[in-house]
Design brief:
With 181 residues, the chain is an alpha+beta fold. It has two domains: 33 residues; 139 residues, no CATH class. The protein contains two helices and eight strands. The radius of gyration is 28 Å and the shape is elongated.
Amino acid sequence: MRKFILLPSLVCLIFLSASTMKSQEGNEHPNAAKASETSARFFHLDFVVQELGADAKPTNSRSYSMTASTARGVSVRTGSKFPITTEAGKSTSYQYVDLGINFDVSDVRETGNKLAVYVTADVSSLAGENKTIPTSPPVIRNNRWQAPVLLPLNKPTVIFTSDALDTKGSIQVLVTATSLQ
């Protein structure tokens, strides 16, 4: 009789403990997120946007820095709002356009002594003055790239480049990744 009662009790106990473990797998402990953040690796990223002349020498450069981690993405937004005049009948109003630099970095992973990241870069500015039609509205230049890139640590790397549409020069984005740990 004891065997008859003991065996079903043991089977019920196994099913009960298995269902408890299954429900705990779906519910992460509140400290689990903190543990993954503390195990995250941090990297300093230096971005340089260079405008190059027809001779491939830099004519202008701007630098931007950020700290990225393997746990979260990061963004940089810098620029100005440029007014564009719009006319409706006799009234004049303005529409503002954002011009500047935007960087988004996500999916940061360390692979050996390199850093794999997904980068979106958006560079916009006013083109040179239109000398043939002086009263024409402004022309806005925009370069936008997005791609996964592999960065060697501690070495400046050109990740994006393109020809300038209004000159014989070009524009490029360099990144240097440095480990902070």
